[in-house]
Design goal:
This protein is an alpha+beta fold. The chain is built from 8 helices and 12 strands. The strands form 2 sheets. Strands 1-2-10-7-12-5-4-3 form an 8-stranded mixed sheet. Strands 6-11-8-9 form a 4-stranded antiparallel sheet, with no helix packed on it. The longest helix is centred in the first third of the chain and has 22 residues.
Length: about 325
């Protein structure tokens, strides 16, 4: 089954990703082979989650992959229409006053370091219970989990700074689609340097979040990543990205799973600090919001970055 036409055309309409920038050593995992229980592919799948926490998922050859590609194409169109709306219309869907993670979040509404540096991207989050702006002439694909539609405008040549700061994700697993570079990861180990993730047609970028780290006592990794200006000629383009996040239900306790042969058990006398998924996600989301951010609380609401930095490669 060939699912590449629309996505390949979309990539062809953007400036090419340059070949002279450092790129992350992400493996490519075939969804088709995973669905067929291919032993080598499932082994590589598990290894990628332990070593890097990021990989490219090849969506070609399956109906499920085609659905993901088609929905991503629709959502990229939604994003362009969404951010073309008047500011007043978008602000109707700003639910921050209600301490809701969903809705519209404009430029400079969050910080990305303890100095209070403002992020320079816009994010609109659509969970199942959130309606799209009535002025959008399209429908969103149905989803039971949050979908972030992110927009980062071109930055001035003399001020191409970080748009979204270094962090881990706070859910279980993230499925990311983008057509322009800008996403960077920091590989594990001492002396590692930031490197770009090259977007690939007909592929999604998969990474684990903090919940997967907590459930496995650090066996699996949630890798540190950030968003910067796209490389080369892509820097002159507005960057859109789609972030689908699977997260535990609010009442789920973030603690290591019991009864596994590969997850380390608590040592005698060891006490595990446990919070609910709701507490963790709320703290991480709102601890960096303007109006809620406090420098003294910065470390408290960091994710699993310290675990991510361990030397596993």
């Amino acid at each position: 089954m060939d699912v590449s036409d629309s996505t390949s055309e979309s990539f062809a309409s953007t400036p090419p990703f340059p070949d002279d920038v450092p790129t992350a050593p992400l493996v490519r995992i075939s969804l088709e082979k995973l669905l067929n229980n291919d032993h080598d592919e499932t082994t590589q799948f598990f290894t990628a989650y332990k070593d890097m926490g990021f990989f490219h998922l090849d969506l070609r050859g399956t109906l499920q992959g085609q659905c993901i590609v088609n929905d991503a194409d629709k959502l990229f169109d939604v994003g362009k229409q969404l951010y073309d709306l008047f500011l007043e219309e978008k602000q109707r869907y700003d639910f921050s006053a209600h301490k809701s993670y969903s809705g519209y979040k404009g430029y400079g509404t969050s910080v990305f370091d303890k100095n209070g540096t403002l992020e320079s991207q816009r994010i609109t989050t659509y969970p199942k219970t959130t309606s799209a702006p009535s002025s959008l002439p399209c429908h969103l694909p149905t989803s039971s989990q949050p979908i972030d539609i992110c927009q980062t405008p071109p930055q001035p040549i003399d001020d191409r700074r970080t748009a979204s700061g270094a962090r881990t994700d706070f859910g279980s697993i993230t499925i990311l689609s983008n057509r322009l570079g800008g996403l960077q990861v920091l590989p594990p180990g001492d002396g590692a340097e930031w490197c770009y993730v090259r977007p690939l047609p007909d592929h999604a970028i998969i990474n684990l979040g903090d919940a997967a780290v907590e459930f496995t006592s650090g066996l699996l990794r949630s890798n540190i990543h950030r968003v910067v200006s796209p490389p080369g000629a892509q820097a002159s383009c507005t960057r859109y990205s789609l972030v689908y996040s699977a997260r535990p239900e609010d009442k789920v306790r973030l603690e290591r799973l019991e009864g596994s042969d590969v997850i380390a058990a608590l040592a005698e006398g060891e006490v595990e600090e446990v919070v609910s998924a709701k507490e963790w996600i709320s703290g991480r989301a709102f601890g960096k919001r303007v109006g809620h951010f406090k420098e003294e609380d910065w470390e408290r609401w960091q994710g699993t970055e310290s675990v991510s930095r361990r030397n596993r490669m």
